[in-house]
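Why should sequence recovery work at all? Because a backbone constrains its sequence more than one might expect. Tight turns favour small or flexible residues, buried strands favour hydrophobic ones, and helices have their own preferences. The token representation captures these environments compactly. In the example below, the structure is given first.
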């Protein structure tokens, strides 16, 4: 029996719980029996034997769970084999996720996280700690949501030298830019409409200033290209100064403008760049896309949904199956 803990029970944590219920039969066919033995959010929790669906419904109704035990107490006191860590991203110090992940690894639990913060701040340290403790640190959901990138590079492209990885890693920015291109509306107007539609956050800074894409680039460089870089090593320019006029000039020459994150061995940068209109990275809407340049396989492209409850759960469930199937 695989015992699972879920730390962080918002959109992603609940999405994972729903997928564990919906896909129980499929997952158990691949990895054997499992059960969720603990869930924690910022102020409450549930442990022991409980009905997972009831926990989801209770949280949705009351905004909390029924016990007062804190997440760290759960990690210290409860035995589990694997944790889904889905607390908010903080690229300054990685907390609270960093301490949770460290403690789980030290206890000998496998970690599946959707949280970029701990990996941006301490990727090498966490990977070393996981290796030392003989557990897995899985992070498919941190880069590109449902779009398979981490396992694609680590498994399917194993044996290749990864020369560069570049593309679109922030769906909110891509949505704003593609609407600016099509409708010639100025940035502030599109942003406020995107906020009304729930595509942009009330505080859009993380997305539109390029911080989110920069964080993902650090994970790509350290995790998939064997580099040793910090967030400060990424040159970042966001999309706040892009104008509809710039799109007009670009389109006359056969180009569009997209926020491109690029990791090369000599440079990491996030910036609005000209992309040929018929290039595979010239995608519209909230999609993500990456071009992976390799020495043997040549150029590989992936396109997919970079965020969303079910999409992120898809990446995290694939990590779970990957750990236990092997
Ligand atoms: N949403 C997506 O599509 C998506 C996609 C890929 C990656 N991610 C990443 O996944 C993580 C979770 O995202 P989300 O959308 O699920 O966020 P969310 O809806 O805001 O949920 C965050 C959860 O973490 C809990 N939390 C906050 N501080 C905590 C603490 N100190 N200790 C324990 N739990 C704490 C919150 O508790 P309360 O419920 O009590 O507030 C909430 O349950 C983030 O790092 C995000 O960047 C999200």
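From this structural description, the recovered sequence reads:
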């Amino acid at each position: 029996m695989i015992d699972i803990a879920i730390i962080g029970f918002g959109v992603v944590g609940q999405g994972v719980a729903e997928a564990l219920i919906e896909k129980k039969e499929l997952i158990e066919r691949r990895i054997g029996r499992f059960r969720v033995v603990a869930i924690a959010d910022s102020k409450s929790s549930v442990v022991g034997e409980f009905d997972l669906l009831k926990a989801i419904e209770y949280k949705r109704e009351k905004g909390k769970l029924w016990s007062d035990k804190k997440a760290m107490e759960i990690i210290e006191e409860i035995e589990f084999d694997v944790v889904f860590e889905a607390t908010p991203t903080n690229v300054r110090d990685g907390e609270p996720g960093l301490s949770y992940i460290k403690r789980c690894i030290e206890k000998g639990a496998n970690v599946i996280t959707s949280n970029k913060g701990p990996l941006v701040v301490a990727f090498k340290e966490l990977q070393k700690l996981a290796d030392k403790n003989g557990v897995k640190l899985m992070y498919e959901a941190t880069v590109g949501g449902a779009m398979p990138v981490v396992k694609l590079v680590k498994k399917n492209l194993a044996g290749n030298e990864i020369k560069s990885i570049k593309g679109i890693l922030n769906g909110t920015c891509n949505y704003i830019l593609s609407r600016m291109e099509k409708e010639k509306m100025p940035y502030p107007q599109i942003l406020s409409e995107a906020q009304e539609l729930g595509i942009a956050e009330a505080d859009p800074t993380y997305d539109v200033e390029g911080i989110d894409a920069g964080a993902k680039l650090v994970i790509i460089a350290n995790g998939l290209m064997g580099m040793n870089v910090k967030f400060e090593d990424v040159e970042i320019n966001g999309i706040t100064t892009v104008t509809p006029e710039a799109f007009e000039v670009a389109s006359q020459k056969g180009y569009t403008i997209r926020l491109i994150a690029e990791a090369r061995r000599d440079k990491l940068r996030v910036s609005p760049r000209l992309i040929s209109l018929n290039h595979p990275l010239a995608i519209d809407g909230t999609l993500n896309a990456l071009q992976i340049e390799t020495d043997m396989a040549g150029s590989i492209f992936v396109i997919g949904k970079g965020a969303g409850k079910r999409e992120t759960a898809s990446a995290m469930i694939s990590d779970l199956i990957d750990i236990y199937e092997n």
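A few observations help interpret the result. The chain has two domains: 2-146+309-325, 154-305.
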